[in-house]
Amino acid sequence: MLAIETRGLTKQYGAYRALDGVDLRVPAGSVFGFLGPNGAGKTTCIRVLLGLLRASSGEARVLGKSVWNDGAALRAEIGYLPGDVRFNDFWTGRETLRFLDRMRGGRSAAEITRLAERFQLPLEKHVRSYSRGMRQKLGLIQALMHKPAVLILDEPTTALDPLVQQTLFEELRAVAADGRTILFSSHTLSEVDHLCEYVAILRGGKLIEQDRIEALRKRAVRNVELDFFDEAAATSLRWPADFHPGVCGPRSLIGSWTASPQALLQWLATLPLEDVRISEPSLEDLFLGYYDLRPNGKPAANHGAAA
After folding, report:
1. Is the pLDDT of residue 294 over 50?
2. Residues 117, 68: one domain?
3. Helices 132-144 and 109-118 sit at what angle, rounded to 10 degrees?
């Protein structure tokens, strides 16, 4: 079952396409990482999913409902943290949360108290006296407090110190364990790597990849360091097309491998090696590989839905 689904989603501003035929599939109950640099189209896509922007063409559904036709009902089931969260400066944190709670039916008082304690946010202070990090905590509480079925977070760790980030990650893991869905947009790849089961990568308004993180890692470039028994073996080496050499020494060679791990091991078994080191690809390696740093200078094709 899909919690979020788009088909051919396009948003156009004159001749500029902020989204270009995006087919996004977010499984229910998953923690889904949404990656891409500034201008890739992530925030535009999120605003369409919330019914705040109307798509130029295509379809977007959340929890099986049209984000435009059923937008008001859907927003009651979604928790949202924008990338640039803003509140009324003249209200206290408590007044802000009580107002938002009343708009949702007034059932979140206990959860507001619990989350304020977890994030160590003084609710009696006026928002105008809050630091940027405290405003971010307030934004996180308002997104989480009604226990939404879908949680959409745009750069949620902005301005948070490391201890508060860990608290947030614990809360998000609890949300996922409860069977609810999280769409997590971030520029910090280590966060996505630790939290998310799936990842989608946007580039220039186009969805160029989406799959399980582990499946993507298996297709990612691996860094390989080879040490030979003698210099002659190193200088006479003929490598396959899937090995891309980099730094060469008298008896060593460093490069990258773009084929399967099995093919790499088969090739290494034929070489007179004294030592070999293979580094597991990180999400950062994978992400950079989709942004013109692959050997052929082209992003990989879209491998379809995450399932």
Report:
1. no
2. yes
3. 140
Q: Tokens at residue 119, please?
A: 């994030």
pLDDT in tens, 205-222: 999 999 998 887 777 778
Is residue 64 domain-shared with residue 151, that is, in the same domain? yes
31, two tokens: 């923690």
The verdict on 181 and 257 lying in the same domain is: no
Is 59 within the bounds of a domain? Answer: yes
pLDDT digits (tens, 9 = 90+) for 140-166: 999 999 999 999 999 999 999 999 999
Q: At what angle do helices 109-118 and 162-177 cross, to 10 degrees?
A: 140
Q: 235-257: string of b/e by CB count within 10 Å (b at 16+)?
A: eeeeeeeebeeeeeeebebebbb
- Compute the distance between CA of residue 166 and CA of residue 194 in angstroms, rounded to an integer: 11
Token pair for 250? 């008298």
Q: Are residues 79 and 132 in the same domain?
A: yes
Closest CA to 286 of 214, 183, 206: 214
Single pTM value for the model: 0.80
